[in-house]
Amino acid sequence: MKKYTFEILSEGAIMKFNKILKNTFLALVACLALSACATQKVSTGQMQGDVYTGTDTVEYLASGVPDRVFFATNESVLTTASRETLRKQASWLRKNSNITIVLEGHADERGTREYNLALGERRANAAKDYLMTYGISSGRISVLSYGKERPVDSGSNPLAWSKNRRSVSVKAN
Amino acid sequence: MKNFLITLIMILIPVKSFGLIEVDITRGNLDPLPVAVSPLSIDEDSRKNFENILKKKDIGLEISLIVENNLRISGLFNPLNKDAFLQAPDIANLKPRFEDWNLIKAQALITGKVSYVDEKLRVEFRLWDVLAGKEMMALAFTTVPNNWRRVGHIITDKVYERLTGEKGYFDTRIIYVAEEGPKTQRVKKLAIMDQDGANNKFLTLGNELVLTPRFNPTSQLVTYLSYFRNLPRVYLLDIETGTQEVVGDFPGMTFAPRFSPDGKKIIMSFAKDGNSEIYTMDLENRIVEKITNHPSIDTSPSYSPDGKFIAFNSDRSGYQQIYVMRSNGSNVKRISFGKGIYGTPVWSPRGDLIAFTKLHKGKFYIGVMRTDGSGERLLTENYYQEAPSWSPNGRVLIFYRETKTDVKGEGFSAKLWSIDLTGYNERQVPTPTDGSDPSWSSLLSN
């Protein structure tokens, strides 16, 4: 959506200012129309922005405790949904105090290998930090980055990439 | 490879004279120099001896084919079809009939002779300027018979150097990651091969994930990333002995290793608490130094050939960009300012350029820029490609390229490719399996 707006504006270099405004307005209307479609897609399990919101690849640590969170391109910021998932993980970890976990951080295939290793580590640590603020000691959480080495979806499209940008909590014992 | 003792005897010091052929490698060569590589002549006794030892019927012909193939893939030469040659190899090596070679439009001619001397392989070869009717170079080598392929590479290096004025890159090897299996469960092994794809050998079994092997520019050591026991760490591997060790004692993931130009240090990233910084470790006294200090990702470090500067990749501006700093970490300057994001800076062995990977509008590019970031030049565009590595003479880059998968997520492949600094002569480098993360060795001899 963002991209669509941008393209209209970049053509606007040769347009008059009011025309730009008019077109931007049109683009916004188009965006709203598109986002309506997008929202419908979300309900069938797709993406919001470019963050995966579906359940296709998600596994469960326990009933109602999803094992993974997803990220926007090049980002390690936790979304509202991700924080909710991590709170569920934290509460499950508090109840099962003998369990230790590995947070496996991943990136999509559209980045250089070494940077993606660093990015995967950053993502897994974002999840770790959040779990720690909910009372899980750092001694129970280790972090492992796979960069782009272990995609769950082998597709070369935005949806596949969104599933691959993830941090997965894996039981270590 | 201890048997690399190669004695190099100058038979004739090449006489510099005006008007002899020269090949300009500074620009794209659309008109490669026609060259005739005569089969090296061989006497019947020597031929039989080598047939016994090497299982090659005519080792003189085999060596000439290696030279021919090298010259062809350089893109600078056009080796002529041997069927058209009028003169027998032994006579040609004594005194070529230049009119005959001129007739088939050869401008340069390579002749030679192989013999079996004291259980060794002795090769002499000559380079002739056909139009001037003059000998340009004559050299002889003696080595163990098993080194016969290397003899072909060394001859090519000498010819290349004589005609272009720059060192060659043929007597070299490539270390890379051999890949197999579905994209979601790739099995990766370290592999090494000659620059022309021959003598491929796997160095690990594929039990653990391995990435980014890089040669020590001064020896046969390699540094790489291994996930042995699920602990991603930088390792040091001696190719000759097979011994390996973890580099340093870091409490977390180390990655993106590379040697310093003198081969005495390893520079790499260490990731901790969501922050990757660049460190060096001295291989002699094991002293570890922290080079960068910034909350952003700092990775993919590469030294300048004089060891005074380090180019690296950082997202401190918000996105991946290329930065240069002094080797002690001071004077950090961003140098990439074009549109898009930039990664994998690699300093040219000549010192004047930095090769990089760039992502812009969904396409990946391999390019070069000057060390201050000016003069950006994109050499090749594709769906996905990255990780350029320079030939030791700084004229060719090798990198890897991945294909887009189809709607079913199938059809993935990763291959090694090379391209000249001029942007011409792009070609796939043959590997028995898929391959990625190539690193080019320095010249094995001379």
Q: Helical region count of chain A?
A: 5
Helix and strand pattern of chain A: HHEEEEEHEHEHE
CA radius of gyration of chain B: 23 Å
- The assembly state of the depicted protein chains is heterodimer
Overview of the structural elements:
The complex is a heterodimer of chains A (173) and B (446). Chain A has helices at 2-11, 17-43, 80-95, 113-133, 158-164; strands at residues 47-48, 51-52, 60-62, 65-66, 68-70, 101-106, 141-147, 166-171. With 173 residues, chain A is of the alpha+beta class. Chain A has 2 domains: 2-44; 51-171, 2-Layer Sandwich (60s Ribosomal Protein L30, Chain: A). In chain A, strands 5-8-6-7 form a 4-stranded mixed sheet. A two-stranded antiparallel sheet of chain A has the order 1-2. Chain A has a two-stranded antiparallel sheet with strand order 3-4. In chain A, a hairpin with a 2-residue loop joins strand 1 (47-48) and strand 2. Chain B has 5 helices and 31 strands. In chain B, strand 15 and strand 16 form a beta hairpin. Chain B is mainly β and 446 residues long. Helices cover 12% and strands 43% of the residues of chain B. The two termini of chain B are 15 Å apart. Chain A binds chain B through residues 74, 76, 109-115, 117-119, 121-122, 124-126, 129, 143-146, 149-156, 160, and chain B through 182-186, 209, 211-212, 225, 230, 232, 252-253, 255-256, 269, 271, 273-276, 297, 299-300, 313, 315, 319-320, 343-344, 357, 359, 383-384, 386-387, 402, 404-405, 407, 409-410, 412, 437.
